[in-house]
Design goal:
This protein is an alpha+beta fold. Helix content is about 45%, strand content about 25%. The strands form three sheets. It has a five-stranded mixed β-sheet with strand order 1-2-3-4-5, sandwiched between helices. A four-stranded antiparallel β-sheet has the order 6-13-8-11. It is elongated.
């Protein structure tokens, strides 16, 4: 009887050991990187003006974005290190999207520190995006990173609640490198400085300004709601406006953010329908709104000006659609 019991215990131990080995094998051989891209293919929701967009397309390869999945421990993080090894000497930013990560152990932290060490040597940064509030083990990931010393002032490591925040951080730094100053200007832009007005004569800009209406909104104020009636085109002279699609239970999906010098509200301006989303001031905002009736009056008085403005609007919309299509194609092919 004792021999039988001993044999059963041994068999159970062997079975448990094999199960553990099979689990470790599955974890090591599974791909920890669900998707890999760079800053020439994936962009933040912050709409950039054409010159800024061109700079990001030129410098975007310096930002590497990896969407991770599963468990992070020595084996899978070593796999990640090998995958990033070719990027580490030149990348300015490596963004690790943690949304699908379910576990992180101390050996993974060691490997992540090695990745940051390689980036730190040439001033690069390691950015974590969308860390889970808590893992199945109950550990709060961002707090865990802080406790083990991965995130501290002496390291080039930052944690962001959303992937968009991390991408914006990287893009802003690359734009500064290219000679731009995103988000630094606090004064209102003259109408002539808006992208839609560039190249127009002073008299033509004045003709538009004469029929437009100026308005200001405090941070957090709503410029318009979804399904509102309205046919105005808004030119952003100061601040930023966020476009959100309302969802159920008071939630909203962030579509895009427009900055100083850009325009929005073009859909209702063109089709004279209702607004398709909410527009909310991110900070203090100054706008110039041009109604369709006012535009038509200007176009009737100066047909050449009306034609050129419509052509500029059409080109800007075509560029936006092309950019969106390219980003969707990149996600589909990844």
């Amino acid at each position: 009887m004792a021999a039988v019991l001993s044999g059963l215990i041994t068999a159970a131990g062997v079975g448990l050991g094999l199960s553990i080995l099979l689990f470790i094998h599955d974890q090591i051989t599974s791909d920890v990187t669900r998707r890999k891209s760079d800053g020439t293919k994936i962009f933040s929701k912050r709409r950039r003006l054409p010159d800024e967009r061109a700079a990001l397309e030129r410098l975007g390869a310096k930002t590497v974005v990896c969407e991770l999945q599963g468990s992070l421990f020595f084996g899978t993080t070593d796999q990640l290190f090998c995958e990033l090894e070719g990027d580490l000497p030149t990348a300015s930013f490596i963004i690790l999207d943690m949304r699908r990560v379910v576990a992180v152990d101390f050996t993974a932290i060691h490997m992540l520190k090695q990745i940051e060490d390689h980036l730190h040597d040439h001033g690069g940064h390691l950015l974590f995006a969308r860390p889970p509030k808590s893992l199945p083990s109950g550990v709060e990931l961002e707090r865990y990173f802080d406790e083990v010393g991965l995130v501290k002032e002496t390291r080039n490591v930052e944690v962001f609640p959303t992937l968009d925040d991390a991408l914006t951080r990287a893009e802003d730094a690359l734009l500064v490198e290219a000679g731009f100053h995103p988000g630094c200007a606090t004064d209102a832009l003259p109408l002539a400085g808006c992208d839609l007005m560039r190249g127009l004569s002073a008299d033509e800009v004045e003709a538009v300004d004469a029929v437009a209406r100026r308005s200001a909104f405090k941070a957090g104020a709503t410029v318009f709601h979804r399904k509102d009636e309205g046919d105005e085109l808004f030119l952003l002279l100061k601040g930023e406006v966020r476009i959100d699609l309302p969802l159920s239970a008071g939630a909203a999906h962030h579509l895009v953010t427009f900055g100083r010098g850009d325009f929005f509200g073009e859909v209702a301006f063109l089709d004279r329908g209702t607004r398709s989303a909410d527009a909310v001031a991110v900070n203090d905002v100054e706008l110039l709104s041009l109604s369709r009736a006012s535009f038509d009056w200007v176009a009737q008085a100066n047909p050449d000006l009306g034609t050129r403005l419509f052509a500029r609007l059409a080109k800007a919309l075509a560029v936006r659609l092309r950019q969106t299509d390219a980003e969707l194609r990149s996600l589909r092919e990844a």
